[in-house]
Amino acid sequence: MVKKILHIILILVSTLLIAQDTQLEKKKKELENIKNELQQLQAELNAKSQKEKRTYDSYNNLNRQSHLISKIISNLQKEESIKQTQIDNIKKEISAIETEIASIKENYAKYVASIYKYGKTSELESLIDAKSFNQAVLRIKYLREFSNRRKSDIERLQANIAKLSEAKLTLNNQLEEKRKLKEAKESEITELNRKLHEEKKLLSLLRKDKSNISKKLNDRKKAEIQIRNLISKLIEEAEKKKEIIASTEKKISDKKITTDETDYDIDLSTKNFTSFSEMKGKMLWPISKGKIVTQFGEQRNRKLNTVTISYGVDILARGDLSVKVVADGVVSAVEWLPGYGTVIIVSHKGGYKTVYGHLGEVYVNEGDKLSTGGLIGKVGETLEGNILHFQIWNGRQSIDPENWLRK
């Protein structure tokens, strides 16, 4: 009986062991399949990451090209304006000379009419009418000199007209070249915008990709550092220039140099600007009907489990894309920064500065003086939509714009 029971137990154990071996083999095979699937997914992820990087870099490069060509177009427009002003001035000079020639001819005609009226119509009559030979000689000499001087004046003025006309022709040719070049650059901008649109469509598929978000965050960190460094550089340059001006003005007051020697072409004075510090809580928004979508300070990314610092706010544009300067100021810099695209920095009274990023169009140049509410550009397109990045700095310290913008 005992033997029979042991035999049954042995059979059960053997069956159990066989079942366990089968289950183990099944799990091993399942594990192997999972490993193969993971390798395949990793390979696909690596390929996708490379494609994302190329697409992101391509988008940034196209954006930078667009920024640089926009600068070229802006400079060409300035040159066009200068050439047109020169042409207009030459036209005025030619008109003035033509008026002078007409006046000379008119005066000479009056003189001839006067001689005819009193019966002295020729040198011979003037000679006969003279009371003495010497008087006759003087009359003839005077008539000839008058006629020669008139002829010489007209020839000189006509030569001036010829030179001015030639200069006008040259300027017109240069103006036409500038216009053609500007048209070519505008065509390039159109083509770049088409490519940007295509790249944006590609990138829209990558918005949720971890590596792309990580790349964007890294670019943003770099851009924040660049903005901080740029503002520090602007402050240092402004301080150096102030020292130069102060030194020059001291020399003037000490009469060591004349005012003709003070040819500095910088104007750092902000005393005529409205007070920036008094605008706290009442400040104009840089875009109308905007909505803050990223706040100032620490930003936690749950997907990547990272924390970044935002030195400003992101404002979503709804409808009107126009960007306005929030206070009187002077344009300190127009730069392109990775993660923020085209950026404008404006200096204000009291050492304050404002930063406007993600601009698609720029309407100002470095050194331009601006009034509150003045149009400086348009919001560009980012992966999240039409978003303006806006910062306020007091010296080297960034401050929360939400405390300054009117509610």
TrEMBL record:
Residues 1-19 form the signal peptide. Residues 310-401 form the M23ase beta-sheet core domain. Transmembrane segments: none annotated. It holds the Pfam family Peptidase_M23. The keyword Coiled coil applies. PANTHER family: L-ALA--D-GLU ENDOPEPTIDASE, PEPTIDASE-RELATED. This is M23ase beta-sheet core domain-containing protein. Keywords: Coiled coil, Signal. The keyword Cell cycle does not apply. It comes from the Bacteria. Residues 17-107, 147-251 form a coiled coil. GO terms for molecular function: metalloendopeptidase activity. InterPro entries: Cell_wall_metabolism_enzyme (IPR050570), Dup_hybrid_motif (IPR011055), M23ase_b-sheet_dom (IPR016047).
